[in-house]
Amino acid sequence: MRKKILAVCDEEASYACSFTAWLERKGHYPFEFIAFTGADKVCSYARQHSVELLLVAEGTMCPEIRELPVGRLVILDEENGTAPEELPAVSKYQSCKRIMQEVTALYGEEVRSEESGASPGRKMHILGVYSPLGRTGKTSYALALGQILAVRYSVLFLNLEAYSGFEDLLSCSFERNLGDLFYCIRQKKGQPAVQLAAMVREAGGMHYVPPVTIPEDVEQVTQEEWQVLFEELRLYSTYQVLLLDFGTGVSRASGLLDECSRIYMPVLQDRISAAKLAQYETWLKTAGREDVLEKTKRLLLPPVDGEGEMPWPECLTSGRFGDYVRKQVQDGGIF
What we know:
The chain is an alpha/beta fold. It is built from 14 helices and twelve strands. The strands form two sheets. Strands 8-9-7-10-6-11-12 form a seven-stranded mixed beta sheet. It has a five-stranded parallel beta sheet with strand order 2-1-3-4-5. The longest helix is centred in the C-terminal third of the chain and has 16 residues, at 271-286. It is elongated. The two termini are 24 Å apart. Mean pLDDT is 88; it is low at 110-120.
């Protein structure tokens, strides 16, 4: 399916071109991007092509642009006092990231992607990392795997734990997180792929959506809502790998295990851990879920030995731990 078009129009050519170049580099917005440096050029194009989102600098705005048949028109406010009050506007003089966050909020309020005639979507591999045990190095493995795969593939990492600790680990704060994304899906507010693109972050070459800060925000997500997200990613994103880092309690999200082509399960060898693993496997067999067992690979992880030498989570790809994960990828069977 051809992506919808986001156009930027500004008489200042360097601004329009640098803005669209930034969007292209990010690579996770579900649009094609075109820069225009004059009202006449964008008018000529928009009369012959479907433009979903048009960002126009205040100084470039004119009656002809206002009459264009575009899906959504947003003014880049230059604070000259000439921006039409009845049209949505965002400040031009802020970061590209912030502009897109505000534009996404506006876009999501009124514009909904039409689903009719949608293509079945391209192949997107879904991998899971899960263990019924605690303190196995599960999240460290998932983060290392995502970063190593990101060398060759476009990867989106989702942490589904109730308490991820990411804000402390990354020494940052998140304005929006996975809970906000599912709120938009639940309320049918805008296109989920657009909402996701506005909140995605990058670490170690892979993309991730900030995890929830309130446990219920992930624990109450339904299978149907997950399916909406998966379909959006297949149709409108460029991700080749979706990596799910499950929490220890999987009963609510057990249907997600069926979506995974492979599940990596870090384990421990003590007696208590063996008993818990046996109970988990018995549950799957009783529930007729032998297929989940068949695609699950047990892992006995080495200790993480790169912490302190490199920033987190990049440190997880170094030392014996990183070599172990890298060998898993090199030996094949990932997909």
